[in-house]
């Protein structure tokens, strides 16, 4: 009798109870989804920042490494000779760096040792290696000239959504050195009265270049979900536009500026 009464009362959940349970579940799902989206956005942002930092450090290392070689010669008493072997790069006698534009330059230097490589990683020819008796030593035979390396470093802009890159030309080939670059700018330090004095920086130097200042705008690939506010341009991008008169307005990617200055110390000797 009692069991029959209990069974008659077990009729399941009411519609109101079911709707309340569904509403609570929806709030829980929305909360978990929001946490997931926030964590994913933070992860992608950090990945983009790390990519910019790594590429930026590599860009600075490459540029400083090559510019520090510029103008090296085994005989400090003699000027590095004129050169026009690389297309587009014409060096007057004694010049270590030639400014082609605010985004490209050429450098020349004599090899320091048998293991010297170009910016593309190319090794010296066997005959050139044989002409070097010991690292950084002065030439032993006056008529013997150490092998000379000539390079062109330039920025190549990207197309569409692709990033640009810093490239190096040596011989007849051009190779990409650093990717993830939105823009690159060179400024050249020179002095009007003395080739060993830097009195001004300009993109069109009139005297012997004794220093090079470079700025690189790094860009990480990204989508609009990385940015908290896609209506505001990145502060780094605003800074770059203010410096160089560009009109970049992308709101999806992450940007970072890295910069440095190298004295052409071999030019100072």
Please give a structural write-up.
This protein has 269 residues and is α+β, with helices and mostly antiparallel strands. 30% of the residues lie in helices and 26% in strands. The chain contains 5 helices and 8 strands. Strands 1, 2, 3, 4, 5, 6, 7 and 8 form an 8-stranded antiparallel beta sheet that branches. The longest helix is centred in the first third of the chain and has 55 residues. It is elongated and about 110 Å long.
* pLDDT averaged residue by residue: 82
Taking the sheet with the most strands, its summary is: 8 strands, antiparallel
Radius of gyration: 30 Å
Query: Which spans of ≥5 residues are poorly predicted at pLDDT below 50?
Result: none
Q: What share of the residues lie within helices?
A: 25-40%
N-to-C series of helices and strands: HHEEHEEEEEHEH
N-to-C CA distance: 113 Å
Overall spatial form: elongated
β-strand number: 8
Can you tell me the number of structural domains? 1
Assembly context of the chains: single chain
Percent of sequence in beta strands: 25-35%
How many DSSP helices?
5
Name the structural class. Answer: alpha+beta
What is the topological layout?
Blueprint: H1 2-9, H2 15-69, E1 97-99, E2 104-110, H3 126-130, E3 148-156, E4 164-170, E5 173-190, E6 200-202, E7 209-220, H4 235-244, E8 254-263, H5 265-268
Antiparallel strand pairs: 1-2, 2-3, 3-4, 4-5, 5-6, 5-7, 7-8
């Amino acid at each position: 009798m009692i069991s029959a009464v209990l069974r008659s009362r077990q009729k399941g959940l009411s519609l109101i109870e079911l709707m309340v349970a569904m509403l609570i579940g929806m709030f829980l799902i929305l909360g978990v989804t929001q946490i997931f989206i926030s964590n994913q956005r933070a992860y992608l942002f950090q990945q983009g920042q790390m990519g910019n930092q790594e590429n930026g450090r590599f860009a600075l290392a490459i540029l400083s490494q090559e510019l520090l070689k510029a103008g090296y010669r085994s005989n400090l008493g003699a000027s590095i000779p004129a050169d026009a072997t690389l297309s587009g790069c014409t060096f007057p006698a004694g010049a270590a760096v030639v400014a082609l534009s605010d985004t490209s330059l050429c450098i020349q230097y004599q090899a320091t040792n048998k293991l010297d490589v170009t910016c593309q990683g190319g090794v010296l020819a066997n005959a050139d290696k044989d002409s070097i008796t010991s690292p950084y030593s002065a030439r032993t035979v006056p008529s013997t000239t150490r092998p000379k390396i000539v390079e062109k470093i330039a920025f190549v802009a990207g197309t569409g959504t692709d990033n640009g890159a810093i490239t190096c030309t040596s011989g007849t080939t051009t190779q990409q050195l650093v990717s993830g670059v939105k823009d690159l700018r060179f400024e050249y330090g020179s002095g009007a009265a003395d080739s060993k004095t830097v009195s001004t920086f300009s993109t069109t130097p009139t005297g012997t270049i004794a220093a090079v200042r470079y700025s690189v705008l790094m860009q990480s690939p990204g989508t609009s979900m990385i940015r908290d506010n896609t209506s505001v341009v990145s502060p780094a991008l605003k800074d770059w536009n203010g410096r160089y008169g560009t009109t970049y307005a992308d709101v999806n990617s992450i940007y970072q500026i890295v910069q440095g200055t190298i004295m052409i110390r071999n030019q100072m000797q």
